[in-house]
Write a sequence for this structure.
């Protein structure tokens, strides 16, 4: 058989690009086909308002900094320039008090101690208690999931010396309650819990504590921004693939995966056939299984839970920098700004969501990366992102996002104005990405930025399903990567790296 490529990759999300880069670096011929006119999927950047670079998906690069991907692929040679953020988090309160979390644990604990005696020590204890556990979880994220592997890493990894009997009592709890074991001050608890809420499950969900217990790793890996916008990561991955002989096609939607003798052998794009030894799909799992595979190859039982959206983001181009009442200094703008009064605010927003309504008074993560990168806005200008939760994709009473989007965006701004008055007067342009927008433009079904819900029943060897969690699908030669697979959503690339390892093993065995 004539092969156009060794591996055809469907979609150019960052995970698919990471896989393609490892395969190309290993000497295999790779062809990547992306539906949109730019690469990156939910890690891309475009000039939406003249002179202002808008990220269209993820912005805070945290998880990928905990992996060896950047060094192994030497991505910084292909145009990626990471800018470190320190402070990491800024948390203003309605009474104009505020708090910072720095890259250094000691500096953070000292800062907390100066505000709330005794609480800095508690912060130290929290980090010390859970650093080994979070490091083990990170190691699990960097390998193909399986029950044996999970147990082995827990027992012999960085967490080997933990008292598991005691630890389990905490790990099985909802993350919204675990903070009570360490802290007395709501002003410390609220930002920690709000950051833990970013993966989607609410603070009351059982066995969700790991979203909070992951916190020590923010100090280890830090938070960074690619200079020029989040999409510079995926642009650099594309440059890497092309420099290693790979081909990347944009505006090239895959229509079908070709299956012959029960084996994936290529794809059809715009009526043209491309053949390959195997196929890797980095799209949403529902796109791969329900739209791209021939009908007689679709699995009967794979129906992972996508949920009902959970977040929305208002992107603003401003004529002047944001100025917080609680802390007008520049360091507030460098950090991720965690705007959450208390845990009750998260729960009230979640209660609105459960009723099928947009949050009335949403907690917000505000980001102003023009504070560290002057290429994002014209001189003196600012880009401001306001990520808010919770927002259902499917609204109650038959309402449509097209009808309510302006009113909902306005409400997010109202909440933000309480902390940074005058922001509204600085707006020169905007984009509101609600759950329906995310589905239409980025292919994120039902607006779930993590593809599938990130609850325990859909993590590790259950993501996207028990039979497909090893990056192999039910069809020979069809591999899977992306947020629909282990370890899930976020800018990490671990799924892409893990999938590449599986494919490389199979290619080296010459099974195709
Ligand atoms: C608004 C928003 C904010 C976020 N904020 C953060 C953040 O700050 N930090 C963080 O870590 N994470 C964040 N995330 C989550 C993170 O960005 C995503 O989980 C992650 O980027 C998903 O990557 P992926 O590799 O699974 O692919 P995706 O980005 O989902 O890409 C899949 C690609 O496949 C393409 N495709 C689909 N169908 C076809 C087809 N038939 N043919 C060809 N191509 C096809 C799509 O066009 C897309 O490019 C955010 C996401 C969003 C949307």
């Amino acid at each position: 058989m004539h092969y156009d490529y060794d591996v055809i990759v469907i979609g150019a999300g960052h995970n698919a690009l990471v896989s393609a880069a490892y395969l190309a670096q290993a000497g295999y011929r790779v062809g990547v086909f992306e539906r949109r006119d730019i690469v990156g999927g939910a890690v891309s950047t475009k000039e939406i308002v003249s002179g202002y670079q808008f990220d269209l998906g993820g912005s805070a690069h945290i998880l990928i900094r905990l992996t060896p991907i950047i060094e192994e692929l030497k991505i910084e040679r292909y145009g990626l320039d990471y800018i470190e953020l320190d402070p990491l988090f800024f948390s203003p309160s309605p009474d104009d008090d505020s708090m910072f979390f720095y890259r250094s644990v000691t500096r953070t604990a000292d800062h907390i101690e100066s505000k709330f005696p005794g609480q800095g020590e508690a912060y130290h204890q929290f980090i010390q208690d859970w650093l080994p556990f979070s490091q083990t979880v990170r190691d699990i994220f960097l390998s193909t999931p399986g029950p044996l592997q999970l147990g082995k890493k827990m027992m012999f990894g960085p967490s080997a010396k933990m008292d598991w009997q005691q630890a389990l009592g905490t790990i099985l709890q909802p993350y919204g309650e675990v903070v009570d074991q360490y802290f007395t001050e709501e002003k410390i608890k609220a930002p920690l819990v709000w950051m833990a809420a970013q993966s989607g499950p609410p603070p009351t969900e059982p066995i969700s504590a790991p979203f909070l217990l992951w916190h020590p790793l923010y100090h280890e890996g830090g938070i960074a921004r690619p200079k020029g916008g989040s999409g510079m990561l995926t642009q650099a991955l594309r440059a890497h693939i092309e420099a290693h002989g790979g081909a990347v096609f944009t505006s090239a939607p895959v229509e079908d995966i070709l299956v012959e003798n029960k084996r994936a052998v290529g794809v059809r794009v715009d009526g043209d056939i491309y053949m390959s030894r195997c196929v890797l799909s980095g799209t949403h799992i529902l796109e791969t299984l329900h739209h791209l595979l021939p009908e007689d190859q679709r699995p009967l039982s794979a129906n992972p839970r996508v949920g009902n959206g959970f977040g929305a983001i208002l992107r603003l181009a401003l004529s002047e920098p944001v100025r917080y009442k609680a802390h007008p200094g520049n360091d507030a703008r460098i950090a991720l700004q965690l705007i959450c009064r208390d845990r009750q605010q998260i729960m009230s927003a979640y209660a609105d969501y459960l009723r099928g309504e947009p949050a009335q008074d949403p907690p917000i993560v505000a980001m102003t990366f023009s504070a560290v990168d002057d290429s994002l806005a014209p001189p003196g200008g600012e880009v401001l992102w306001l990520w808010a939760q919770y927002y259902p994709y499917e609204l109650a009473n038959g309402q449509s996002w097209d009808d309510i989007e302006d009113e909902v965006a306005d409400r997010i701004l109202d909440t933000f104005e309480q902390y940074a008055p005058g922001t509204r007067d600085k707006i020169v342009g905007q984009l509101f990405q609600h759950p329906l927008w995310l589905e239409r433009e980025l292919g994120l079904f039902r607006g779930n930025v993590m593809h599938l819900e990130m609850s325990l029943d859909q993590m590790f060897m259950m993501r996207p399903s028990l039979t497909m969690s090893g990056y192999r699908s039910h069809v020979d030669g069809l591999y899977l990567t992306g947020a629909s697979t282990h370890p899930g959503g976020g800018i990490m690339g671990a799924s892409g790296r893990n999938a590449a390892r599986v494919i490389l093993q199979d290619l080296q065995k010459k099974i195709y």
Q: What stands out?
A: The chain has a mean pLDDT of 96. The first helix runs from residue 14 to 25.
